[in-house]
Amino acid sequence: MTDDKVSAAENEQINFGVLDCLLGYKLRRAQMVFFDSFSAACSDLGISPGLFGVLVVVKENPGLTQTAVAKALGNDRSAMVAVVDRLESMELIERRPSKKDRRSYALYMTPHGKTFFNGLLERVRAHEDELCQYLESGEKKQLLDMLDRFPR
Amino acid sequence: MTDDKVSAAENEQINFGVLDCLLGYKLRRAQMVFFDSFSAACSDLGISPGLFGVLVVVKENPGLTQTAVAKALGNDRSAMVAVVDRLESMELIERRPSKKDRRSYALYMTPHGKTFFNGLLERVRAHEDELCQYLESGEKKQLLDMLDRFPR
DNA sequence: TATTGTTATACTCTATAACTATA
DNA sequence: TATAGTTATAGAGTATAACAATA
Question: Which InterPro entries does this one have (chains A, B) (predicted)?
Answer without folding.
Answer: HTH_MarR-typ (IPR000835), MarR/SlyA-like (IPR039422), WH-like_DNA-bd_sf (IPR036388), WH_DNA-bd_sf (IPR036390)
